[in-house]
Amino acid sequence: MSIRSITSRAGHRADIRPSLAHDHSQCIRMALSQAERVCAAEGARLTPLRHRVLELVWASHRPLGAYDLLDQLSKEGHKPAPPTIYRALDFLLEHKLIHRLATLNAYLGCSHPGEAHGGFFLICQDCGTVEEVRDPLPLSAAVEKLAGQARFQVSQSVLEVTGRCQACQS
Ligand SMILES: [Zn+2]
Ligand SMILES: [Zn+2]
Ligand SMILES: [Zn+2]
Q: How far is it, in rounded angstroms, from Cα 137 to Cα 23?
């Protein structure tokens, strides 16, 4: 099976609005099996700790901070030092399995891992759910164009939009 077909399935899955009721165990299962495939394809090792960190990041559609992870892992009897957690998070970032949301200083599972994409996130200020919006390419292109007009060279553009999700509006 090619990575392409895996990621297009992931994109389909990502169309579920995370703020609406859905079988989240499906999201977790999908994320973990995709991570295993992405790592296998890239010759990277998804160690038990990296696997568990990814699973914890995917526990919900709310981003998780490094210290929340540390707390959870300590409760489970692991006593990882903060640098160990950061290394595991760096590994997951490097293989594009998670995103870091700068405004929240927290991590979110990527809903279409292994696929090159700009970041566009809708952050609900009421329930904390974050939705990763698929296909932000016209938006990324617009950002790059405007940055280019200002003679600014973009190395990364992650757009974080704060507001109220569909579920929280009613
Ligand atoms: Zn879910
Ligand atoms: Zn993503
Ligand atoms: Zn909400």
A: 28
User: Could you tell me if 20 and 168 are in contact, meaning their C-beta atoms sit under 8 angstroms apart?
Assistant: no
Question: What percentage of the chain reaches a pLDDT higher than 90?
Answer: 64
CA distance 40 to 48: 14
What strand order describes the sheet that includes 130-132? 130-132, 119-124, 158-163
Neighbours of ion ligand 2 (CB under 5 A): 110
Ligand 3 centroid from CA 21, angstroms: 12
Region of poorest pLDDT, from 11-25, 48-62, 64-78, 85-99: 11-25
> What is the pTM assigned to this prediction?
0.82
Of the bound ligands, which one is closest to the alpha carbon of residue 61?
1
**Which of 2-11, 72-81, 91-100, 135-144 is predicted least confidently?**
2-11
The Cα–Cα gap between 3 and 6 comes to 5
Domains and CATH numbers, the chain: 22-113 (1.10.10.10), 117-170 (3.30.1490.190)
**Residue 16, pLDDT above cutoff 80:** no
CA of 22 to the centre of ligand 1 (A): 6
